[in-house]
Amino acid sequence: MSWIILFVAGLFEIAWAIGLEYSDGFSEPIPTAGTVVALVISMALLGKAVQDLPIGTAYAVWTGIGAVGTASLGIVLFDEPATGARLLFISVIVFGIVGLHLVSGGH
């Protein structure tokens, strides 16, 4: 269950990271509020997950999910470049997340 909680925490990390762009430097009230709510939920779920998972593993996976999701959505939503090198390094992060899950006894 902790891995599922950690995954959802990572999804909320993506939400608040993308929310930063929409909040326009925290000048747009509704996107700013959504960003803050997503940040609080993400942190709360991360805190819950680390009750059962090692902090180093959980934090690396959480930030990895956030990095992959945010970089991917940056490409889709904000026309950021989708170069071969960029996609390669995003995939390296995915392999790292999967690897940490496997060596940490996650199912």
From TrEMBL:
The keyword Ubl conjugation does not apply. GO terms for cellular component: plasma membrane. It is found in: Cell membrane. One of its GO terms (molecular function) is transmembrane transporter activity. The chain crosses the membrane at residues 33-50, 57-78, 84-103. Keywords: Cell membrane, Membrane, Transmembrane, Transmembrane helix, Transport. The keyword Acyltransferase does not apply. It is a multi-pass membrane protein. Gene3D superfamilies: 1.10.3730.20. Coiled coil: none annotated. Pfam families: Multi_Drug_Res. SUPFAM superfamilies: Multidrug resistance efflux transporter EmrE. This is Small multidrug resistance protein. It comes from Halorubrum lacusprofundi (strain ATCC 49239 / DSM 5036 / JCM 8891 / ACAM 34). The lineage of its organism: Archaea, Methanobacteriati, Methanobacteriota, Stenosarchaea group, Halobacteria.
